Amino acid sequence: MTEEWLDFIIACRSGKDHEYDIVIGAMADDQIYNFVSDYMDGTITREQFWVLAKFKYPTHQIAFCSKESLKCLKYRDCEVL
Questions:
Q1: CA 26 – CA 78 distance, rounded (Å)
Q2: Tens digits of per-residue pLDDT, 13-44?
Q3: What is the largest CA-CA distance in the chain?
Q4: Cα–Cα dist 9/38, whole Å
Q5: Cα-based distances in Å from 6 to 2, 69, 75, 78
Q6: Distance between terminal CA atoms of the chain?
Q7: In this prediction, what percent of the chain has a pLDDT beyond 70?
Q8: Burial of 1 from C-beta contacts in 10 A (0-12 / 13-18 / 19+)
Q9: How far apart are CA 59 and CA 44, in angstroms?
């Protein structure tokens, strides 16, 4: 998680569009998003956000954000369990 990451998350959660086809990085899951939400609401400062977030280890995600990006995927196989 970086300053740029936090700004991007806030922009996305505020409804702003982006032009990225694929976004790879830390996911603002429930644990982290509570801190993001508190920061956006003004309940905590940016500095307080980083103090709280530094002990959390977010999961990572790959988000395919456009139809064009889906062309990067190729079906390989499946396994019946």
A1: 27
A2: 889 999 999 999 877 777 788 888 999 999 99
A3: 49
A4: 13
A5: 6, 23, 33, 36
A6: 36
A7: 100
A8: middle
A9: 23
Q: What whole-number distance in Å separates Cα of residue 48 and Cα of residue 35?
A: 9
Q: Which residue has the tokens 């939400």?
A: 37
Buried b (16+ CB within 10 A) or exposed e, 31-60: ebeebbeebeeeebeeeebeebbeeeebee
8 A C-beta contact, residue 36 and residue 45: no
Q: Taking a C-beta distance cutoff of 8 angstroms, is the pair 22, 64 a contact?
A: yes
Average pLDDT of the chain is 89
pTM: 0.71
Q: Is residue 49 within 8 Å of 39, Cβ to Cβ? A: yes
> pLDDT tens digits for 54-78?
877 777 889 999 999 999 999 999 9
